[in-house]
Amino acid sequence: MVAICIRRYALVASALAGAAATSEAQSPRALFGLVKDSLGHAISGVEVRAPGDVVIAFSDDSGQFRVARLPAGTRTLSVRRLGFAPASATITASAGATDSVRVTLYAVAHSLPGVTVEDEHDSLSKKVLAEFWSRRAHGFGKFLTREEIERKRSSRFVDVVRNVSGVTIMNARGRQDIRFRGAAFGSRDCPPQYWLDGIPLQNGGADEFSPDNIEAIELYSGPATTPPRFNTRSATCGTVVVWSRLPG
Q1: CA gap 158, 215 in Å, rounded
Q2: Spatial separation of the C-alpha atoms in residues 65 and 87, rounded to whole Å
């Protein structure tokens, strides 16, 4: 009878010890961590995430974080911070001890898209002379921008356009003026029609314009290439469109 009682007590004690060991192994453990960059500097604001993408801690100004109750066992934590490549740490929470981990994050370089800076003059030109830029893009006719005019360093209009394909300079009525090769009106002289800021000029001539006061020039050799806006009866001998200089 005594032997049976002793055996029963031994079995109960063994079961209790096993339960205690199991409970201890499965009980939550505290985890302390430290996050630094590749140069050894502490990183604050780092997210520590458990499986399931659940945030369980953030690092403080000293780069340290603490998880008060981390279930025992092996699990992988992810560590993330904007500007750094994500990292992971595999933790095996052991019974009867406080676990610790150190993580190093490496900074990543982000390339920014190129930034185009447009000055006020270019912006104004594209708004006021939108049709000019559109016609220039289509390529019918000859076009000179303010930048191209200034590169000529000429004080006379005829010298600005002298080397433009299809243009010839001749003396007419005691002054030099533009003529387009191939333009003719019977046996008569065939001067082009001049326009200034969208307005046709009567008996206009090249000497009426100073290159310093010009923003852009359009040259059309005849009706076939002249845009409808400027294609009047006078366009037979060609058309010269001048745009006044813009501020800036």
Answers
A1: 16
A2: 15
Instruction: Tokens for 150, please give them.
Output: 């200034």
CA triple 238-174-161, angle to 5 deg: 40
Q: What is the mean pLDDT of residues 17-27?
A: 46
pTM over 0.70? The answer is no
| 77 touches 89 (CB < 8 A) | yes
Pick one of 3.40.50.300, 3.60.40.10, 3.30.420.40, 2.170.130.10 as the CATH number of 120-244.
2.170.130.10
Q: Does domain 29-105 have CATH number 2.60.40.4130?
A: yes
Q: How far apart are CA 248 and CA 238, in angstroms?
A: 31
Q: Among residues 215, 198, 85, which one has the least CA distance to residue 150? A: 215
